[in-house]
Amino acid sequence: MALYPRDGIVEAVGPDRCRLTLGSWSWPSLAAAIARFDTEIDVVGPAELVDAFDHLARRLTRTAAGRTPGAAAGQP
């Protein structure tokens, strides 16, 4: 993970783990901000953030499969 995430605090918690503390205006935007890092993610809470990651994962899966609502209507 980046040493300086610009909008958060990174703390080392082990030789191969860190804790990222961020704030955001919504759970989905917080999930997206965390997902920008190319690493595995363990959400320690709250449940709303887990739900936001689930929602984001389903959206991205539909996008990757070309099944977005706009694609069905012939839109980009």
Write structural notes for this entry.
The chain has about 80 residues and is α+β, with helices and mostly antiparallel strands. The chain has one domain (about 10-65). Strands 1-2 form a two-stranded antiparallel ribbon. Helix 1 packs across helix 2 (about 45-65). The N and C termini lie far apart (about 30 Å). About 40% of the residues lie in helices and about 15% in strands. It is elongated. The mean pLDDT is about 85.
Q: What attributes does this structure have?
A:
76 residues, alpha+beta, two-stranded antiparallel sheet, 2 strands, 41% helix
Explain the layout of strands and helices.
Layout (H helix, E strand, L loop, with lengths): L7 E7 L2 E6 L4 H9 L11 H18 L4 H4 L4
Antiparallel strand pairs: 1-2
Helix pairs in contact: 1-2
Based on CA inertia axes, which overall geometry fits?
Answer: elongated
Helices, by number, come to: 3
Count the domains. Answer: 1
| Order of the strands making up the biggest sheet | 1-2
Separation of termini?
A: 32 Å
What's the SSE pattern?
A: EEHHH
Tally of extended strands?
2
Question: What's the helical proportion of residues?
Answer: 40-55%
Radius of gyration from CA coordinates: 15 Å
Query: What is the overall pLDDT average?
Result: 83
User: Which structural class do the helices and strands define?
Assistant: alpha+beta
Largest sheet at a glance? 2 strands, antiparallel
List unreliable stretches of 5+ residues.
none
Percentage beta strand:
15-25%
